[in-house]
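Hi P.,

Sorry for the delay on this. The queue was packed all week, but I finally got your sequence through. Input first:
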Amino acid sequence: MTDQPLSLVILAAGMGSRFGGLKQLTPVGPSGELMIDYSIHDALAAGFNRVVFIIKHAIEKEFKEQIGDRIAAYAPVEYVFQELDRLPDGFSVPDGREKPWGTGHAVLCCEDTVTGPFAVINADDYYGRECFQLLADFLKQPKQDDRWHIAMAGYQLENTLTENGYVSRGICEVDENNTLTSLVERTHIELKDGVPMFTEDDGETWHRLPAGAPVSMNCWAFPAGIIGDFREQFVEFLKEKGQELKSEFYLPFAVNGLVDAGEADVTVLPTRDKWYGMTYAADMPMVRAALKNMADTGIYGQNLWDK
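Then the structure:
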């Protein structure tokens, strides 16, 4: 069992374009809690004991005032800054690029700050209590061999959808040991008469997705020391797509690169929790109602940090 600190790395640098604002600072709980409060609360209860926020300098002051300084009362807090010009030697930002380099680049920015085992989550998602316990338990029992052992919370597809538009999900296939064998990104999934369907041609044709399919919600557990291995893949990405103004180096790309090279495997940890997110502003009433219900039924206190 590892005795190293467990870090919770939170991707908070992105602005919510489809939502229409900075989702990270939107109150959703019955006492004004933010979505991020629930993730941190549940992670600390599961055994994580350090919080690392990945943000941009542009939101630093507001973020610290409304989130970071509060959380520092419950756990050590550190900040990593994901900026466009934080690139390996020999590369530069192409003229006209404004979009961040993606979640894989964000985690790579943590290389000097996060040296022990860690989990990665989005700042603006509600993941549920079970997933953090699953990730913590996985990280506390590292395997000692010559491969990287990664874990991912696997949500049931039906528990991750919104009725207010389309979503993108990584559809997973696993073997009898829950080892990931395939992850296919479906970028346009909608509920059609209550059935999850995807399209690849802007709605000309629709295809049914299997009930109960495990999906990735960008909720990962990584062993100590792995971040440096992402750098080589990021360099290759920059060589191939670095001049594109909207290309992104996603975290699953980094993981897949290690798996394809035979250097890592991924265990999918099935969770029954329901995911909540605010992909669209119209999702907010449902999210608020769900969190209020959890407080009313005693899952959380009416004031989250009192329980």
